[in-house]
Specification:
heterodimer; A: 145 residues; mainly alpha; elongated; B: 117 residues
Chain lengths: 145, 117
């Protein structure tokens, strides 16, 4: 019920946004270009975020999963935040988004490195050799080797 | 007209990021090792920050970006804290204690000091 109410609120809010946007006058070419750049950047970021998620789900080993998540998360997040900054224009919100972007740019690779280092120091061995498709026994035992 | 388009576009992106977060929960639950789960939590937190930023655009209230900044910092600190805890089994040890024996020695010394005082 709560989720449904929130949905209505979201739709209502977006309608209000559109009403104020329409009242402001005709859309100029610059706004159109800005929105196009923003949309392209956000879509590219989504591709990276989703490929990272699928990689984390499907890759065979901890270190490969870390590779997928660590690299794509940084780039995907930066692209999506860049799209949002372009979309918001030169406002207070874009400054805050720039701060989020900066913090994530610093902390995301550091956290990835810390997790990899901790796993390596704890003695977690990477899976070596050629890739073999998991058998049913591997899947039922959780894939832990 | 473009404002309508961008609002619904942002809403769709927010839903896609929610789907990505839900998929990441899969690795959190089935992850065979601790580090897999930690990786999933970290990635989930990053996606939460993204979701907050986009959701602020959807409901057109800039306050939520502050929460996103806070969440980004807390996510990083939480990851480091959990890693440190599972390495030294204590949050009391300084991070520059390089090996486990030295770490245990320092905590032991501290324990005796506290016990004696």
């Amino acid at each position: 019920m709560g989720a449904l109410n929130m949905m209505f609120y979201v739709l209502l809010a977006s309608e209000t946004v559109s009403a104020t946007g329409a009242a402001a006058g005709a859309v100029d070419v610059l706004t159109l270009i800005r929105m196009a750049v923003s949309a392209i950047s956000i879509l590219a970021g989504l591709v990276f975020v989703f490929s990272g998620t699928i990689g984390v789900l499907r890759l065979p080993d901890f270190y490969t999963r870390l590779h997928a998540a660590g690299m794509t998360d940084t780039l995907g997040v930066e692209l999506i935040l860049f799209g949002l900054i372009v979309q918001s224009g030169f406002t207070q919100m874009s400054l805050k988004l720039l701060m989020v972007s900066f913090f994530l740019f610093l902390t995301s690779p550091t956290a990835t490195h810390a997790v990899a280092n901790a796993a390596y120091k704890a003695g977690l061995k990477p899976k070596l050799g050629r890739y073999k498709a998991p058998t049913t026994e591997d899947l039922t035992s959780g894939g832990a080797k | 007209m473009f404002a309508i388009g961008m609002a619904y576009f942002n809403l769709a992106v927010a839903f896609l990021i929610l789907i990505s977060m839900a998929l990441m929960l899969g690795r959190l639950f089935i992850g065979p090792t601790l580090y897999d789960r930690l990786l999933a939590v970290n990635s989930f937190g990053t996606k939460t920050v993204l979701f907050l930023c986009i959701f602020c655009f959807v409901i057109d209230r800039p306050d939520g970006v502050d929460i996103a900044i806070l969440y980004a910092l807390m996510n990083f600190i939480a990851t480091i804290a959990v890693l440190k805890f599972f390495r030294y089994r204590s949050l009391d040890t300084p991070l520059n204690a390089l090996d486990r024996t030295k770490a245990q020695k320092t905590t032991a010394v501290r324990a005796t000091k506290n016990g004696g005082a």
